[in-house]
Design a protein that fits this description.
The protein is of the alpha/beta class. 34% of the residues lie in helices and 15% in strands.
């Protein structure tokens, strides 16, 4: 289990600045209010959406240690910056506006700041640890259509929530290596994004693994199109399938959310 201390001397190169899952749709699929949530860290947006939707406690995990310093920066930026400043820093300047960075950096724990500075200083004109910006996040940033806190009202609602929150517990682990012990007995909801695509498991084997987790409801997989073959396999195993608006503005395309509900 990783602590919230310095996570790596040799930090991997790239992470996603924002999710391309339609997290706004999750409010109608899952029950967050008062829930204990465990979610993949990635860009941090699953965590922020969970908090915005009323989760009582949210813990995060990610095999990539570089997600943690970036998340900590984003977490404190939302707490401190105005909506316009946040959009400019993370979307327009892509973390190159040092006037805004210097407003946030003093609030970061020292051990996190050490790793973050390594990441930011690799190329101050364009940080190389971020994947290219998502077109949808940039073009539709004020709508909150995909990422709920990019709506201005939701941003300030989340800001108030985070001002009463501390950085979450972070597990620097793969999903299959998460420690479910006396310290971490389980959760009400697990958000696993598209991790399934990287596990080299059949749906049957994946279902067997998920059945061992002490978690009531699991977002088992997120697909950016309706895969009818995969849908049929998971439906035959009793998984719930939800088709949600695409992450890109295309009325003819749907994303597919696959959910396991323990009985």
């Amino acid at each position: 289990m990783a602590s919230n201390s310095s996570l790596s001397k040799d930090i991997p190169t790239q992470i996603y600045a924002f999710t391309n899952e339609n997290l706004t749709s999750f409010e109608s699929i899952y029950h967050f209010d008062g829930a204990d949530v465990l979610c993949v860290l990635g860009s941090g947006d699953q965590y922020f959406a969970s908090k915005l939707y009323g989760a009582k406690n949210v813990e995060v995990f990610d095999y990539n240690p570089s997600t943690w310093p970036y998340f900590a920066l984003k977490f404190h930026a939302i707490k401190i910056l105005s909506y316009e400043e946040f959009l400019h820093l993370f979307l327009d300047s892509r973390l190159t506006d040092w006037n805004l960075l210097n407003k946030v950096i003093p609030y970061l724990p020292y051990e996190i700041l050490t790793d973050l500075k390594k990441m930011l200083m690799r190329d101050k004109s364009s940080p190389k640890f971020l994947y290219p910006a998502l077109t949808d996040a940039v073009v539709n940033r004020q709508t909150g259509r995909v990422i709920p806190y990019l709506d201005e009202t939701n941003y300030y609602k989340l800001q108030q929530i985070l001002r009463n929150s501390s950085l979450p517990k972070m597990y620097n682990k793969n999903l299959i290596d998460l420690p479910f012990s006396t310290e971490k007995k389980g959760a009400d909801l697990l958000l696993a994004s598209n991790i399934y695509a990287w596990l080299n498991m059949t749906p049957q084997k994946y279902d067997g693994f998920l059945s061992t987790l002490p978690i009531g409801i699991i977002e088992a997989n997120y697909c950016w199109h309706e895969n009818k073959f995969l849908r049929r396999e998971f439906e035959e195993l009793g998984f719930q399938i939800d088709l949600v608006p695409s992450d890109v503005p295309d009325e003819n395309e749907k994303n597919m959310v696959i959910t396991k509900i323990s009985h």
